[in-house]
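Appendix C: a fully annotated inverse folding record. The material below is reproduced so that readers can follow the format used throughout the book. The structure is listed first as tokens, followed by the designed sequence.
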């Protein structure tokens, strides 16, 4: 499935637990030698009784992530189809996500609170998270936001002109970010519309990043450059993000199914 081109291999393993090695995850995510995806998702039975499903998220480098908004919408759409309901609750490592089906094939997900304390990101040392003292090329004084995973958002004059392949990994692996970070470059188009590109931690450049879009809107609103609700234009399409007054962030956008199938995990080094 994918959300605006941010694509996922989603394995439904609610019938029994599944633990895969980082090597197996990397093999599946490889676009040349495996299936290929931005993130690998495993669905499990939820431990929390109020949740419909548990979603575990893995990056192409084999590391586990706490949040993925586009994947949450994709998973929610499947759960709602099964239950014939218009809402679902997804358990993630970052917490419970409330999801809702809207009109015109759109799904919204409450991504939880936007955290901004330096310890929440986390950063290696205390600093003003509205102006983090980290720079690479044209990127400097980024805004730190945690949306279930860490982000640093840089304001630029032209998002398309930034060489993310060069500067993205430099920021991701900077010593200021002991758990590494996602990197967004943002160009403000108007008070209710911004252009964003993303370098995802453990994945590289992707066509869209839901939690990154949330972080971008929170960052521009904190700087006073936008309202608390805006359209975020990504390489793969547009998400509508609202930073609500309770500090939670609501993300709305479409989902799509690419194909269904059965995956023989033994082909990727997994033994049952």
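Designed amino acids, in order:
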């Amino acid at each position: 499935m994918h959300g605006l081109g941010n694509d996922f291999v989603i394995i439904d393993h609610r019938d029994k637990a599944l633990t895969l090695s980082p090597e197996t995850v990397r093999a599946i995510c490889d676009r040349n030698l495996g299936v290929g995806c931005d993130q690998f998702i495993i669905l499990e039975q939820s431990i929390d009784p109020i949740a419909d499903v548990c979603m575990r998220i893995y990056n192409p480098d084999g590391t586990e992530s706490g949040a993925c908004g586009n994947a949450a919408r994709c998973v929610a759409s499947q759960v709602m189809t099964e239950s014939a309901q218009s809402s679902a609750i997804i358990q993630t490592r970052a917490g419970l996500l409330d999801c809702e089906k809207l009109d015109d094939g759109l799904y919204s997900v409450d991504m939880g609170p936007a955290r901004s304390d330096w310890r929440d990101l986390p950063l290696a040392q205390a600093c003003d998270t509205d102006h983090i003292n980290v720079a690479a090329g044209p990127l400097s004084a980024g805004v730190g936001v945690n949306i279930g995973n860490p982000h640093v958002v840089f304001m630029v004059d032209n998002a398309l002109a930034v060489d993310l392949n060069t500067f993205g990994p430099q920021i991701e692996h900077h010593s200021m970010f002991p758990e590494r970070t996602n990197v967004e470059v943002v160009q403000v188009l108007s008070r209710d519309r911004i252009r964003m590109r993303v370098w995802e931690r453990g994945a590289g450049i992707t066509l869209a990043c839901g939690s990154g879009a949330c972080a971008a809107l929170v960052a521009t609103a904190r700087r006073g450059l936008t309202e608390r609700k805006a359209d975020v234009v990504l390489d793969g399409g547009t998400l509508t993000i609202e930073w609500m007054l309770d500090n939670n962030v609501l993300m709305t956008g479409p989902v799509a199914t690419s194909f269904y199938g059965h995956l023989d995990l033994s082909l990727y080094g997994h033994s049952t």
